[in-house]
Amino acid sequence: MSSLNRKQLFAATVVLLLVPALTWGAGFAIFEHGNRAMAMGGAFTAVANDPSAIFWNPAGLAFQDNHGQKFELMAGATFIMASQDFYGENPYPGAGYTASQKDQVFYPPHAYFVWHINDKMTLGTGVFTPFGLGTWWPQNFAGRFIGKRIDIRTFDFNPNLAIKLSDTVAVSVGVDYYVGQLDLTTSIGAINPFTQQLTDIGQVHMYTDGMKNNAWGWNAGLFVKLPLKWTFGLSYRSKVNLSYDHGYGSFSQFATGYPEFDAAAGQMVPFGQKIPMKTEIDYPDMLSAGFAWNGEKWTVSLQYSEQGWSSFGNLNIKFPTRPDLSENVKEGYQDVSQYRLGVEYRPNTRWAFQAGALYDETPQPAASMSPLLGDGDRTGISVGISWIHPTWRLDIGDLYLFIDPRATNGQSYDGYDGRYKVTSANLIGASITMSF
Description:
Porin, 14-stranded antiparallel beta barrel
């Protein structure tokens, strides 16, 4: 076995890619942080008239009519259901190969608390998940050496202060405190010299330690009441560099039936050990601008957004005590735009109905598509309904996404070529708001 060199043993090496599930926003952003806003296609920056304004445009808090109540509380969740198929291409895994992800349901929560201090100042704070993902491929999936199961969540604890400068202008400023968690399992493969076949010799489970990985960012907003029932909204969230310094890789060995091969693999890979791991992600900034017309029964809103995904150019995965396992992964993401349209109809004081449409560009180049993300441009349509009481309301929304299939076209950075197609992507959720 002395001829078994490192290149052979790591023919399929450990690769960590912190990229998302297709059902969530372009790239791996999540925008469903209030189900009334979701039902309006996310065109809410110039509307911003419920507590979810803390995410969309906190400056809108200063003009919210709270019926004389000083406090508002909103809480809810969005259930994300999706499935995805993969169709292989030559040279690997080859034309004719197909696989399907296991069906999963994700439920990112959101919660907001608003305190109307006085006529000029409003304090709001929110907790939501601006970025996240989850994928799960079958155990024998050909791409299991890149990733077979992943769960990544980023939580934003976001206090804001909104100030009414005049009867027509309000501004806001806030901080974003990010806490990140990751959990990724990949297979470790090597060429078995006795069979000359790629063989599973084990797996690595990479994860972070609780809620110790954190970082700070900031945000600001502007809300202006214009003539003829028009409003203008502008909001900005900064880039956040989140270092995952408190992480580990836990290595487990699989018996192959060839003791000599297993012994050699055990000398090369730290099986049975938990070793420190770290990485970092520059989460993108986002600028949104919109106009809305607010009539007695109708609201119509248009919105344009830009996300600075070019910050996600490379991903450097480090094992400080085992630098031979470290990896610098090229991602090459690009800045992208989003276009959103929303309407709301209020026939009376008890009911409201919403509808919307959106188009989100993908920031991911074809070469970086992988089993952990094969992203495409997406078009969405949404509907919703609200039941309104003087001191509380219930909002239910549904968003269906049509995601363009994409192929690596022989350019895959991982040497894993094929076409990714989402067969369904539906998001449904509910939010409840109480005033007191």
